[in-house]
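During the no-cost extension, the postdoctoral fellow (Dr. R.K.) reprocessed legacy sequence entries with the updated structure-token encoder. One reprocessed record is reproduced below for audit purposes.
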Amino acid sequence: MSESDLIVIAIGGNSLIEDPDNKTISAQYAACRKTVRQIVPLVAAGHRVVVVHGNGPQVGFILQRSELARRYLHMVPLDSCVADTQGAIGYNLQMAFANELGRSEVRRTAVTVVTQALVAADDPAFQRPEKPVGGFMTEQEAELHVREDGWQVREDSGRGFRRVVPSPVPTDIVEIDAVGALLDSGFVVIAAGGGGIPVYRREDGELVGLEGVVDKDLAASLLARRLGADRFVISTAVDRVALHFGTPEERSLERMTAAEAEQYASEGHFAPGSMLPKIQAMVQFVRATGNSGIITSPRQLEHLDSGTVGTTVIA
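Re-encoded structure tokens follow.
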């Protein structure tokens, strides 16, 4: 990679919450800072960097607080939950970058863009809500929400009921010009957090928020394509993508083409709620741009320039 390459990095849940038994804000900041520490060498090397973060647990926390307070305060709509997490997680990342860049004596500033993801109002996902959000409920609690709030709910493997919402495909990033301008001005940009706030455009041109969530990796891929990124990186829980994951036949992949990735996906190697959307997002990027991408763990991010880490996906 050349010094001025643009790299879009999508960081997952393990970059925000490392210990399932300790989800406090201070613990989340510590996890953020640990991941940022791996990204700073890329910034120090002169790369332009955009960070896209997940927000699944954090949206769940807001929904649960809203549920507990429903006798006293209004419920929080899902698009506002995503906006809230973009601000809060963005703050943690900004502070982590400020502190880590300061330690490295790198004069760059990180800034968060509250980002809207444009979706189609007639996306089929709105007819088939499948994405679980929030905490578990009893059957009685679920029935109450169905009756009073119009929620759709689903029983989850004997553990209780959860709300399910649409997960439409993002078609554009509303603030793409602002992200580009900030990059051109030398900022490290945090954008499209949680996949972006889902909005659609009415016939009169006005934007309207929607009750749904956008897949973070798909949004990051779209952002990378719209920005013309040189590299798209997805940070996840494993160092490399593997076939036959979790079995005695497990085999890590150092490199694969988009066609091979699709073949492995069709053979069922990638879990739908885990690695599959990452593979799909990566294939979209490399096919659209001809550039390569990398899937790896947070601890490997600082070594991206070596070309020896993660699974490289090529067109």
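Residues 40 and 161 are 41 Å apart (CA to CA). The chain has a mean pLDDT of 92. The remaining legacy entries will be reprocessed before the final report is submitted.
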